[in-house]
Amino acid sequence: MVQATTHPAIRGLKVVRPYPDMVASSGLYRVLLSSAPSVFTPRTKLGLPIVGYRSIFEPSWLLKLRFIRNSRGILKEGYDKYRDMFVIRRWTTDVVVIAENKYMEEIRAHTKDAVRSVEPFVLDLAGDFYHQGKVFIESDLQNRVVQHKLTPNLGNLIPIMKSELGFALQEELPDVEAEDWVEVDAINVFARSIARIVARIWIGPDECRNEDWLVATTDYTQNIFATGFILRFVPWFLRPIVAPLLPTYRSMLKSSANAQKIVDGLINNREGVTRTKSDGSKLSNDILQWMMEMARGKELQRENLAERILILSLAAIHTTALTMAQALYDLCANPQYIDELREELVEVLRSEAEWNKTTLLRFAKLDSLLKESQRLNSVFLLTFNRFLPTPITLSNGVHLPARTRIAVPQYAIMNDPVNVPGEDPAKFDPWRYEKLRKEPGNAQKYFFAMTDAQHMAFGYGKYACPGRFFASNEIKMVLAHLLLRYDWKFPEGQGRPQNFTIDSDMFPDPTKRLMMRRRTVEKGLEDLLAF
Ligand code: HEM
């Protein structure tokens, strides 16, 4: 029997399966599931294997449900068995997973590397129903601003970021004046602290500490994901009825309205300034200002600007906070490396005597730790998520129709021993990339913010994450402060929080805590720290 997939994105990827999903409703289902041989591999009409079925009797809906919590296992199975190319079944869509670099390069050449990850990302959030994120699809003002304004200004922004991180950490970390160990919910504290720094750079000094903005940006992310997650299980035609019943949906709209109000007020003030200061000297150095300057046509509409800033906060806050928390967890799980890392921080800060681009560049061990931690605990298992704009036939003869959804199993690739550079691929080695950079010809390779075919945690190609250079600076500045000001460990009897997955995103167990204690800062550094 031939079943056609239903999602418009995968029209043409017909699935050939010789058994009906109705088997699931039979009383024999459980017995059959466990006793049937697992040698059978369903394939799409194009001949691509679909991974993850536990037996010939497992219905597709169950596989799609299982992908939510077992994506890591299913992707690894596909990567180990088929390597080049295979298909995974997600709740809303099938995805052609491409693990062989050769085929990805063929796709990049064919598309001129001009397709972005935004559309699949928004559709995954059921975005075509509630339109959140639509502005990101319509145009790429956010990318232009990050690439042409934020990144070239990173050096100038360091003092501002330092000042805001001092305030943020003092506000958000628990009070640890006494030299006792105090428990901390690292994920939440880091998300709130990063949200503050991001707010300062996104909307400037006047409103960045406005609690409504901070709540809007942190809650918006959680609510948009939760709403999208629930709505995915609701048929398209019922979504307009179900959505308003969801508290997460109502909170999301409230965040959006609050953000709109704040951005509106800022634009009112700034339009006056733009008119009177023709030399531009008094204009703010922040994302909103840059967007106002670079926006064209519809991008200039206030709702458009406000939504864009909100979604750019979404892209920047939790990804960064999780990456930072994972690195700190890795250090706590391997405390023998902490002193060596502190030595580097102290030595570089003493010799530079200030926080600047070179200071952050010289934090080579910290940079290497971040890359190694990301290799083992990346936020995304799949990157290079794209819809093919036009059909393509790859050199292995596989024809992929237009609108095929593709992705790269970057977590499996990064953790395949043959792709791990340096020695001992199975080991957590925080100095792996620092050692490699010392080898001849490698000085400009293996930086945390760089992407290559073996390490695509920030994506790949022209539309790899444009914010990765900002994220790298931000994490280094915050982590350096956290390590110099405090000691860190896990609570008695608790090990490193285990990672779990929801769909193809990975998170550390949010119920786990860290312990922190104030320490004496090395001589001569007190005045260099933000707090
Ligand atoms: C550690 C933190 C971060 C991680 C792990 C991360 C990861 C990613 C990944 C995997 C992609 C998809 C790229 C691809 O598929 O080729 C992406 C896209 C994007 N990221 Fe990040 N990101 C981070 C921080 C940031 C920050 C701080 C910003 C803003 C300054 C940002 C802005 C964006 C934008 C605008 C896109 C969409 C690019 C497009 O048009 O396709 N990200 N990010």
Record keyword descriptors for this entry.
alpha+beta; binds protoporphyrin IX containing FE; 531 residues; disordered N terminus; 50% helix; 2 domains; four-stranded mixed beta sheet; single chain; three-stranded antiparallel beta sheet; globular; Cytochrome p450
What does this structure look like?
The protein has 531 residues and is an alpha+beta fold. The protein has two domains: 2-128, no CATH class; 139-380 and 415-528, Cytochrome P450 (Cytochrome p450), CATH 1.10.630. The protein contains 20 helices and 14 strands. It has helices spanning 29-35, 60-82, 101-111, 118-124, 127-130, 134-138, 141-150, 154-172, 186-203, 211-231, 239-242, 247-276, 287-294, 302-333, 338-352, 357-362, 364-377, 410-414, 432-437, 468-485, and strands at residues 2-3, 15-16, 43-44, 85-89, 94-98, 182-184, 383-387, 392-393, 399-400, 405-408, 486-489, 499-502, 505-508, 514-518. The strands form five sheets. It has a four-stranded mixed beta sheet. A three-stranded antiparallel beta sheet has the order 1-2-3, with no helix packed on it. A three-stranded antiparallel beta sheet has the order 6-14-11. A hairpin with a 2-residue loop joins strand 12 and strand 13 (505-508). Helix 9 crosses helix 10 (211-231). The longest helix has 32 residues, at 302-333. The chain is globular, with a radius of gyration of 24 Å. The protein starts with a strand and ends in a 13-residue tail after the last strand. The relative contact order is 0.13. Residues 116-118, 140, 142-143, 146, 312, 315-316, 319-320, 323, 379-380, 383-385, 457-460, 463-468, 470-471 line the site of protoporphyrin IX containing FE. Protoporphyrin IX containing FE binds next to helix 7, helix 14, strand 7 and helix 20.
